[in-house]
């Protein structure tokens, strides 16, 4: 069995080690010497944990990442700490082959996998094993024979868990990460079936992504970077020429996506995004752009400018001008995924209609003073940004996001279809009666029924909002105006029917760094809604933007509705979608959009 990976350790220079030690010093306050792990405090209750917020815990992933970095310093004291952490991490992996989660670690030892109510996060086999592969490849000389054997056994268990789970290419970052782990484990420990599995999965992911024209987790500021990190690891480790070429192409695809969605005037990575944890560019992303561009992309704010010596990303030199010298205004249109390539691509319903999976297409209109982005079909999970705008300056950016709240938490079952014509978007929000509540998959709606004391559409503005404010301009048309510095946005609700409830109203609120306008659909005593029995649960939304205090040219919106569909049209363009709640695949794909 010939090797396809680099076997010699990647040694850091003295300068790189000094930089790394400087960063590692920041973890000192969170290192628990008694437990030999990093501690943290839970911020909120998580889908995959039984623990509430505010609980002091020891973080397994952060600890193993810390250990991998400590072992790269070659500092006697730090290396010993890394070994201590490693010895404490390895026993936390589930090793009982009778358990379905064999090979997986818990988030925290305080929240073990056995006997819990919350579902196990199987991704922790991938996340933990990645750092262990780094240790084996680059710092194994610090491990004695017994510890090397323990790491070997842990990695093989993790690889088997990954192989058994067999995540498909539509789960982008985990598919890449698991492929990398299996690639290294199979080659390093000469296990042919794991090695063949990894190489075949890389080829499959590469072809799927190429055919789809991008990642399923499209334009994600979080998971594009996670994918890039794993692709960079592959670039550094894989020596097989064919596999290396595939990895290089995928890595360039990531940077191309970022470059095309970067808006220089506001200094933001713009939408639409399938998964995001922040609406504005984080310090870590600013650092990434700075270091990966060799210091050419300099954004304001407080963030590290030292190179990330363990993850030394580089923007392909030909793409750097796309960040620095932009032609504005411009429109970017992306086919993110192809409907025909989805595992479930056609469903025939009892009414005789066959619905096919639709392509997911994003639009970004980048203007010198703002950027407006939408996707033709999306949903309103709290990690999704299907309709989002950015403006302001790189020093003081502002963003606008559309949300739907069920008892003041993002309601994943609400889907959104959007037609965008430069600075105007027409959208229809409708409901999947078997969709998710807070999460799209973990807490799906049971018996098509929800209980709610409050339901509202929220137009949320965040960032430098001191010069931002909402006002009602037309109560009859349910129209409001947002003024924010030199940018204006006019938002309307041209149609709404939620099970025949009385007409709603706008409410405004805010904090120091947020302003919002809520269209309140229902607020009162807790009420049961049988979504499948509702004749309608649909909302029409219009949003138009303008800059330089110019008068917003809002094209008139024509509303037409029959027994089945709502249709919003303007200037020969329209969006059409189901009025009545239906099952998720149909709600997602039974729509029409015609853009001029």
Give a written overview of the molecule.
This protein is an alpha+beta fold and 596 residues long. The chain is 28% helix and 29% strand. It contains twelve helices and 27 strands. Strands 6, 9, 10, 12, 13, 14, 17, 21 and 22 form a nine-stranded antiparallel β-sheet that branches. Strands 11-15-16-23-20-19-18 form a seven-stranded antiparallel β-sheet. A hairpin with a 2-residue loop joins strand 13 and strand 14. Helix 6 runs antiparallel to helix 7 and helix 7 runs parallel beside helix 9. The longest helix is centred in the first third of the chain and has 21 residues. The chain is globular and about 75 Å long. The mean pLDDT is 95.
Ordered list of secondary-structure elements with their pairings:
Elements (H helix, E strand, L loop, with lengths): L13 H11 L6 E2 L4 E5 L14 E3 L1 H11 L5 H14 L33 H17 L5 H21 L6 H17 L3 H21 L10 H15 L3 H20 L1 E2 L4 E2 L13 H10 L27 H5 L5 E8 L8 E3 L5 E3 L3 E7 L3 E6 L1 E3 L7 E6 L4 E10 L2 E2 L3 E8 L2 E8 L17 E15 L4 E7 L4 E6 L2 E12 L6 E6 L3 E17 L6 E11 L10 E4 L3 E6 L2 E6 L5 H6 L1 E4 L2
Antiparallel strand pairs: 1-2, 2-3, 4-5, 6-9, 7-8, 9-10, 10-12, 11-15, 12-13, 13-14, 13-17, 15-16, 16-23, 17-22, 18-19, 19-20, 20-23, 21-22, 24-25, 25-26, 26-27
